[in-house]
């Protein structure tokens, strides 16, 4: 019974955040089965990520915070999330408005974060306080990195050919930079990390919410009536 409660507490933040982001799509909500599929792909990429990260740790060692933060952690995780998003969703017919990029990128990110949270709950001593802290920090962090990635993938999808590659590059580079910065703060600031990470996360949430509103405002469905949407 205790294990079930712990697992529920570990899964709930990712599912709740994904539900929130999904419901923020004001005009043309994505098919649930597509969102679930991307979430499960996010779960599955944990395996290659762990293998690659372990190999890099054996190669480079564990005592280089900058290398760990921006290459071994953020670099590998964000690249594989981006790889799945680009190859599975970018050219899909369901990707028909800018906000869709946010939904699908966040689905992949939160699938990864949810399994990571479950593994942490199983293999590390977990209290309600530690699980709450993980919900507020790493899980929501992954969601926001996904928002940034999806926002710029959405811009690339509907941009002119001359700007498409620029937005795709930003869609990988920006979440990698933000994720690496998050990890570097957690590793390098020792006992004072909380005074740095809280304003960082608040700023990231404000920025992420603005990106979500901006993506919604560019939807081609925003001028349609409810009856028109149902016909489509």
Kindly summarize this structure in a few lines.
The protein is an all-alpha fold and 232 residues long.
What does this structure look like?
The chain is mainly alpha-helical. It has helices at 2-23, 32-44, 46-60, 65-88, 98-123, 128-157, 161-188, 193-217, 226-231.
What are the main properties of this structure?
232 residues, 81% helix, 9 helices, mainly alpha, globular
Number of structurally distinct domains: 1
Structural class assignment: mainly alpha
Radius of gyration: 18 Å
Q: pLDDT below 50 for ≥5 consecutive residues: which ranges? A: 225-232
Mean pLDDT: 89
State the end-to-end CA separation: 46 Å
Q: Give the helix proportion (percent range).
A: over 70%
Net shape: globular
What is the ordering of alpha helices and beta strands? HHHHHHHHH
Strands, count: 0
Beta-strand content estimate: under 5%
Major β-sheet annotation: none
SS field, number of helical segments = 9
């Amino acid at each position: 019974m205790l294990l079930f409660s712990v697992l529920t507490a570990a899964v709930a933040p990712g599912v709740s955040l994904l539900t929130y982001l999904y419901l923020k799509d004001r005009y043309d909500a994505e098919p649930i089965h597509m969102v679930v599929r991307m979430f499960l792909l996010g779960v599955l990429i944990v395996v290659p990520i762990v293998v690659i990260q372990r190999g890099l740790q054996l190669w480079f060692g564990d005592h280089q915070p900058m290398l760990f933060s921006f290459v071994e952690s953020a670099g590998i995780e964000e690249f594989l999330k981006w790889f799945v998003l680009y190859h599975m969703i970018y050219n899909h017919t369901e990707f028909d408005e800018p906000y869709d990029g946010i939904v699908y990128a966040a689905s992949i990110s939160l699938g990864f974060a949810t399994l990571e949270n479950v593994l942490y709950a199983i293999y590390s001593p977990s209290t309600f306080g530690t699980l709450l802290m993980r919900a507020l920090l790493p899980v929501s962090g992954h969601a926001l990195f996904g928002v940034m990635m999806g926002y710029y993938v959405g811009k690339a999808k509907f941009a002119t050919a001359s700007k498409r590659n620029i937005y795709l590059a930003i869609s990988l580079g920006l979440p990698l930079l933000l994720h690496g910065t998050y990890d570097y703060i957690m590793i390098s600031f020792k006992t004072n990390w909380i005074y740095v990470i809280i304003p960082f996360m608040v700023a990231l949430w404000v920025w992420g919410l603005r990106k979500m509103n901006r993506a919604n405002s560019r939807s081609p469905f925003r001028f349609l009536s409810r009856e028109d949407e149902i016909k489509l």
